[in-house]
Amino acid sequence: MNMNIAVAGTGYVGLVAGVCFAEVGHQVMCVDIDKEKVEVMKAGISPIYEDGLEELMQKNNAEGRIDYTTDYQKAYREADAIFIGVGGTPERSDGSADLTYIATVARQIAESVVKDCLVVVKSTVPVGTNDKVEQFIQDFLVNDVKVEVASNPEFLAQGTAVYDTLHAKRIIIGSESTWAEDRLMEIYQPFHLPIVSVNRRSAEMIKYASNDFLALKISYMNDIANLCELVGADIQDVAEGMSYDERIGAKFLNAGIGYGGSCFPKDTKALDYIAKQNGYALDTVKAAIDVNKKQRIMLFTKASKRLITLNGLKVAVLGLTFKPGTDDLREAPSLDNVPLLLEQGGADIYAYDPVGASNFAKVYPEGKNGNGRITYVDQAAEALEDANVCFIFTEWGGEIKAIEPDTYKRLMRTPLIYDGRNIYKVQDMERAGAEYHSIGRQAVM
Ligand code: NAD
């Protein structure tokens, strides 16, 4: 049965969920506090870059199954279900989650609903939070209606968010009553996806345990990669050899300059914090955090040892976003390295990213910056022209991975390359006559 669904928050999680709910036939109202964003979405323009999202928005806008508003009362009043996908679960300085945004939505719901309604929390929240959200709503509830809270954590990956939602490997439903479970099952029925139904706290834990396991896998491979360099092994060969073991799996074995994005850094710190609060030392996750911290500046550390100074050198930076396919810069390794290059190095940076440059320029405006300078260019070749050093931070397919090894040799003043994503074969760079440093593989000089 099609339902009236409201979605609070139109970021990567909320907007994609809303559009996909509309696509399978539900009637959806998306709520955001950002007026400008709402206007843009009404006009059929996606405020975020996600493959296929804008087309799907335009189709469902035109067919009248989805609309956007800042008027939360209108949206929540008669909704059968309200999904919460607001951000605002970033870590505070101690690693704990900041639940202010979720609390605001909870209160708005309590003051608005006039009929029985299921509130579904998609945002990643510490175990036990949804019990509190339900209590909070009860405390502020204005009308005599039933409101229950279910947990439905999100597993999409930015860059493939629409595909991941429509073809999710599993839907996790965390509920405390058959009423809540049945309603959520009904909402997801048209997706025809596997559903795992558990209690609310287990659902909340599944999200953290999954993300932190992946972060751990990345940090483990990075740790092994650093050791490979020291003992003369090659991490890519090692990863390939490991990947045939089904117990290990072939994914998340790529070594690089560490994980970033809005989830892994935050969710590892949050679980570490939750463990500490419960008097438990979660040593594995703590190790993943520590390795990642070192790994993110690994290339800068290597370059600082190789060069007397970066001062005044033209430094090409290829890739700024935390991964390809997204314009998101949150916790991107570039955000650790660019300030080091500018402040400690005094570098003259020429940065290229196919979609992330304008967001980056909001943090590091073009021109003189600290002890160095930064210029944003529209083509990778402009960054490489006459450059002394090149850092690769994001493995954008067509735009960066497609650059031929010879191009570095041809365009750069000195073809000295620090590749944080291992996008080239070492032999190809050697053949091209470049000096090539990567992660977990032997450097060629
Ligand atoms: P985001 O920052 O991209 O979007 C959040 C949106 O919520 C913003 O547009 C903001 O304006 C809006 N908002 C804030 N307060 C609001 C309110 N009171 N009413 C309506 N809208 C409000 O966040 P995101 O990346 O989509 O992440 C949301 C949550 O989902 C986080 O908890 C995150 O950990 C989790 N998550 C994210 C991803 C991901 O890949 N980004 C994947 C899985 C889970």
UniProtKB/TrEMBL annotation:
<dbReference type="Pfam" id="PF03721">
    <property type="entry name" value="UDPG_MGDP_dh_N"/>
</dbReference>
<keyword id="KW-0560">Oxidoreductase</keyword>
<dbReference type="InterPro" id="IPR001732">
    <property type="entry name" value="UDP-Glc/GDP-Man_DH_N"/>
</dbReference>
<protein>
    <recommendedName>
        <fullName>UDP-glucose 6-dehydrogenase</fullName>
        <ecNumber>1.1.1.22</ecNumber>
    </recommendedName>
</protein>
<dbReference type="GO" id="GO:0051287">
    <property type="term" value="F:NAD binding"/>
</dbReference>
<dbReference type="InterPro" id="IPR014027">
    <property type="entry name" value="UDP-Glc/GDP-Man_DH_C"/>
</dbReference>
<feature type="binding site">
    <location>
        <begin position="252"/>
        <end position="256"/>
    </location>
    <ligand>
        <name>substrate</name>
    </ligand>
</feature>
<dbReference type="InterPro" id="IPR028357">
    <property type="entry name" value="UDPglc_DH_bac"/>
</dbReference>
<feature type="binding site">
    <location>
        <position position="330"/>
    </location>
    <ligand>
        <name>NAD(+)</name>
    </ligand>
</feature>
<dbReference type="Pfam" id="PF03720">
    <property type="entry name" value="UDPG_MGDP_dh_C"/>
</dbReference>
<dbReference type="GO" id="GO:0000271">
    <property type="term" value="P:polysaccharide biosynthetic process"/>
</dbReference>
<feature type="binding site">
    <location>
        <position position="37"/>
    </location>
    <ligand>
        <name>NAD(+)</name>
    </ligand>
</feature>
<feature type="binding site">
    <location>
        <position position="124"/>
    </location>
    <ligand>
        <name>NAD(+)</name>
    </ligand>
</feature>
<dbReference type="GO" id="GO:0003979">
    <property type="term" value="F:UDP-glucose 6-dehydrogenase activity"/>
</dbReference>
<comment type="similarity">
    <text>Belongs to the UDP-glucose/GDP-mannose dehydrogenase family.</text>
</comment>
<dbReference type="Pfam" id="PF00984">
    <property type="entry name" value="UDPG_MGDP_dh"/>
</dbReference>
<feature type="domain" description="UDP-glucose/GDP-mannose dehydrogenase C-terminal">
    <location>
        <begin position="316"/>
        <end position="426"/>
    </location>
</feature>
<dbReference type="InterPro" id="IPR008927">
    <property type="entry name" value="6-PGluconate_DH-like_C_sf"/>
</dbReference>
<feature type="binding site">
    <location>
        <position position="266"/>
    </location>
    <ligand>
        <name>NAD(+)</name>
    </ligand>
</feature>
<dbReference type="InterPro" id="IPR036220">
    <property type="entry name" value="UDP-Glc/GDP-Man_DH_C_sf"/>
</dbReference>
<dbReference type="GO" id="GO:0006065">
    <property type="term" value="P:UDP-glucuronate biosynthetic process"/>
</dbReference>
<comment type="pathway">
    <text>Nucleotide-sugar biosynthesis; UDP-alpha-D-glucuronate biosynthesis; UDP-alpha-D-glucuronate from UDP-alpha-D-glucose: step 1/1.</text>
</comment>
<feature type="binding site">
    <location>
        <position position="260"/>
    </location>
    <ligand>
        <name>substrate</name>
    </ligand>
</feature>
<feature type="binding site">
    <location>
        <position position="207"/>
    </location>
    <ligand>
        <name>substrate</name>
    </ligand>
</feature>
<dbReference type="InterPro" id="IPR014026">
    <property type="entry name" value="UDP-Glc/GDP-Man_DH_dimer"/>
</dbReference>
<feature type="binding site">
    <location>
        <position position="32"/>
    </location>
    <ligand>
        <name>NAD(+)</name>
    </ligand>
</feature>
<keyword id="KW-0520">NAD</keyword>
<feature type="active site" description="Nucleophile">
    <location>
        <position position="263"/>
    </location>
</feature>
<dbReference type="InterPro" id="IPR036291">
    <property type="entry name" value="NAD(P)-bd_dom_sf"/>
</dbReference>
<feature type="binding site">
    <location>
        <position position="323"/>
    </location>
    <ligand>
        <name>substrate</name>
    </ligand>
</feature>
<dbReference type="InterPro" id="IPR017476">
    <property type="entry name" value="UDP-Glc/GDP-Man"/>
</dbReference>
